[in-house]
Every structure is written in C-alpha cells, then in structure tokens.
Amino acid sequence: MVTNVNGPRITTSGGTGAPDQPAARAYRRAWWALGAYPISFVAAFVVGEGLYTWVGGDEDGAPIWAIVAAGLPALVVFALPGAAAVVLGRRAMRLGRPGGRLPAIVGATIAAAFIALNLLSYLAQLVLG
What we know:
129 residues, 71% helix, elongated
C-alpha cells in the first residue's frame, strides 16, 4: 500500500485528478505578497528619510520638490507588495481561482489607504501649520 506523504493533491473541479497548480500557486503567492507589507513599511521609511536627508531636508521645512523627491519613492516602495498581490490575485482569477479577488482587494486597499493617509497628513500640516 502506497501512501501520499506530501498531503492531499489539489485537483480541478472536474475531478480528473490533474493538478490545478498554476492557479493555486498564484493564489498562494498573492497572500504571501501581503505578508511583505511589514518589510516594505520599514523599507519605505528608510528610503523616505534617507532621500529627505540626502536632498537637504531639515526640521524647519523643505521645498516641495524635496518632499516629493523623498516621498514618492517611499510610497512606491510601500505599495510594491500590494501591486504584487493584485497581479497575482488577478492571475489566479484568470486561471480559474475566483478567490484570488480577496488578496487583490486587500493589497490594493492597504496601499491606497497608506498613500491617502500620508497625503492627507501632509496637506493638514500645510494648512494647519
């Protein structure tokens, strides 16, 4: 008697026994991409603060070009896991795994909320002093 030591095999809904590997792989990778958000959070702060210091920003204020030059790359670094989750989630959906929509939505929502929070914070600082 032979047992499967690798666990259950993922099959298509047709029950043919053929592995549904590409869709399942894309789905898993979409969720793993979301797990990279803590790393990208730290990396975004390192990139943003490093560039801000490099372009001559100080605590008394900086020209708008320095803030954009430091902030834009930092926001892009933070949003990378969300973009990966969207791409991989949509790939999973295209390959027949409709559940790929959830990690795509979560990734895009986290990225959009972080960018909006940072922009609103900057605008509030400009208006309120």
